[in-house]
Amino acid sequence: MPARDLPWPLLQTVAALADAPLTQIAERLREAIHPYLASSALVVFTEDCTGRPQKKAGEEEIISRVSITELEALRAALPYEAPWFGEAEIGGRSRSVLALKDAASHALLVLTDPHGAHPDHSTGLDWVSYLWGIAARRIQEKVADAPPSYLLESRAASAERVRVTAELTDLHSTTLETLLAALRSASLDDATARSTVTDLAVKALVGLRTLSYRTADMAQEPVAKAFERLREDLRPLTRFGGIEVEFIEPPLNGRALPGEVAHTARAIVRGLVLAMMEQPDVTRIRTQWDCDGENLLINIRDDGRGSLSVDAPSVGRLERRVEALNGRLHLEVMPGWGADVFVTLPLDAPTSRPGGDVAEWKLAERELEVLQHLVAGHRNRTIAFALGISENTVKFHVRNLFRKLDVGSRTEAIALAHSRGLR
């Protein structure tokens, strides 16, 4: 065939798709498919990419809300690898979709509100399947090659998911405490308690689901918005605890908080409020946020007997979370008058130093090597292979690291190492 007769636009589209980086592959695939089948949004779900299993393009209302649970349910329901048209829940509501599974990788392609733009609909589906096959192979090859750029992207996305999971755990704890408080409340009869608990559970489920799929919006939070979220989290709990919680607003024009600072601040306040509510004779708790441009300043005070102790396990765990962000927690106890807690969280990460500022931990050379591998996200088997030692020896060093760093998990060790500039 003469060169002038070749389908150059199609060949250029295929070439662009085959060369697409992972961060752009959804957009490139949607552009390639559009002449044959238009859609409101395109979502790729693949477990090959552990750091970012969803690749999305299209209407923000859909791609910001689509969940892994929805995609897993759709993939499990597909009877075969051929294109499937039907109704499925995507982005929180039922939508018309076209879904295709890749036989080799089990990756899933979903097109919402599909409508044919090609006069020959069957030919259009053939081209969609062909282009999807190229994209699926590209994803597999990119992950297999694992270049530094992909590893950095994957690690950052994984760290973000860890942070969101931690916040979900905190919210679940608050929700359960609220439900228990409502069920135990002597002021509610059985019917009212059931109705109240049902309403709380439904609201909590909606809130948890919304939170888990908006990680992109959590990189920075206005300080006033972050404080308002805290107040909303605690309001149901305070309704049934019989304790007045006063909220002193931060300045509206305060500097926006990095996501990890906003999350830690809310977790600290929630944890301290719960600890204070467990004390006898507490009737009022006051919490205040302020921002000096470099730090988030938190103050929480109760009017109890002053029995809250810095040695309490709950306070110790919160203090370690503060230290992981290079912050400070100070507790002043006034017998007969209550407890006053001051927390300072820096808004900027500490300046990185070569090898990190970890001298005070007095780590042996091998322990430091293991810690560096942990920070890089490596598993025990990978660390053992890299250092030429057994997995049992790696576990031995990890236990020593936990003891020397005074942490209880790999996540805490990694966060604390980051706070000291170890990368």
TrEMBL record:
CDD domains: LuxR_C_like
Residue stretches making up the HTH luxR-type domain: 356-421
Entry GO MF terms: DNA binding
Matching Gene3D superfamilies: Histidine kinase-like ATPase, C-terminal domain, Winged helix-like DNA-binding domain superfamily/Winged helix DNA-binding domain
Annotated GO biological process: regulation of DNA-templated transcription
InterPro entries, sorted: HATPase_C_sf (IPR036890), Sig_transdc_resp-reg_C-effctor (IPR016032), Tscrpt_reg_LuxR_C (IPR000792), WH-like_DNA-bd_sf (IPR036388)
Protein name as catalogued: LuxR family transcriptional regulator
